[in-house]
Amino acid sequence: APETRLVGVPTGQLEEGRDQLEIRCLADANPPASILWRRTKSPGVTEVASIGETLLFSPIYRNHAAVYICEAANTEGESSPVSVQVSVNYPPTISSVGPDRLTTALLFSGASFECNADAMPPAEYRWAQIFTDGRMPLECGTGQRLILTNVTYEQQGQYICLASNKINGNVREVKSDPVSLQVVGAPRVVKPAITEKFVVATTEGNPAKLEIRLCSDPKPRLVAWEWGSTRLHAGEVLESRYRALDLEPLAVEDCYIAVLELTSTVKEDQRLYHVIVENDRGSDRRALMLRVDEPGQIPLVIGAVAGFTVLSVLVMGFVCFLRSDRCCVARNTVPALQQASNTMIEDPRLAVDTMERNNQQYASEKRPNHVLKPVPSQQYQQECYQHDPPHQQQHYQRHHHHHHGQPHGPQYTLQGEQLFLKPDRLATLKPHCKIEKPPQYTTFKPSSNN
């Protein structure tokens, strides 16, 4: 009996109208076998789909999706059937959305919409509310059914269903025609937006405008402003200073704006103002506060703020100055040391001109028997180096040493010993020890205890 096997079975997704299907059924038989393709219509029911070893659809469509069975037969018998499942993928197409194009719901009641789409793989659904005033669509739910509870006038408008699936990694999405939700009920004053205020401020003598947004279906039959014992209906004028404007429709359906204008204000106008809205289904009210400032209050507040700002800047600058001055103490001592280094030391045996500062680095060496230490000014006269007049040989001799071509700085010989002095410590020695400013450093021989 023949033995069959399939070649060309697709491994990826087949998209309707774009891909083709070609499957071959190979039979190993002797004598050669005849091959027949059957298609399953329902469980246990098949029909002939193709005769021959090749099953071909170019392009393939959704009606080609089925289970296909290959059979081979010859004079020796029939092969065992070999089957393959053929799936055809296609993007969504929305078949219905509703239940109706227009749904009416009472204020604070519920409403729902349902969307159906034909797609393979099955579609995913999401809903969005669209606006006619230029705002971006607002996503409001997912799933095949959208359920709205406790609806308000803000939810009144149009909704669309978006169905999508993914074929070979590409998202295919389609949106439905819009369906509308109409909300009817008592008037509702809309919650103020970010740019709106519950308190309106003005300056005495200047005009003021109180505004409030409301929605109502049916349209309000009464809109009035109340303060104290006064009631002013929309479209009326009182004392030529108070004017209640007629309702102005907004871009949002069934929504309006109510305005109370004060052409000029006095201090007594500072109070709460209530707006009352009524229609056949009920009423609503909201209060706004008007604050009237004296003419000098605003400049006073501005001046106080400016003064506080300037004072803060000054305090911060003073703190920064103290911190920077503390960091610069070491730097500020340099001029004092330089001044002390330029002090004249008197000795007739030594006449050395003060050397100019340069950028060379001078190496210092320790003297075994002499050190340099700071001497307090009150001890300078007693410890000042005393000149020995009978001694005819120069007590100091100046030498220059170089190390690899680089000078170490001037050197002096003190009775056969070397004394190294930096350039900013060199001075001219003159007779006697009388000086106006004592030097900060001198030489003495340390005692044996040190």
UniProtKB/TrEMBL annotation:
CDD domains: Ig. Residues 396-406 have a biased composition (Basic residues). PROSITE patterns: IG_LIKE (PS50835). It is found in: Membrane. The chain crosses the membrane at residues 298-322. Its main location: membrane. Gene3D superfamilies: Immunoglobulins (2.60.40.10). It is a single-pass type I membrane protein. GO terms for cellular component: cell-cell junction; plasma membrane. Keywords: Disulfide bond, Glycoprotein, Immunoglobulin domain, Membrane, Transmembrane, Transmembrane helix. One of its GO terms (biological process) is cell-cell adhesion. InterPro entries: Cell_adhesion_signaling, Ig-like_dom, Ig-like_dom_sf, Ig-like_fold, Ig_sub, Ig_sub2. This is Ig-like domain-containing protein.
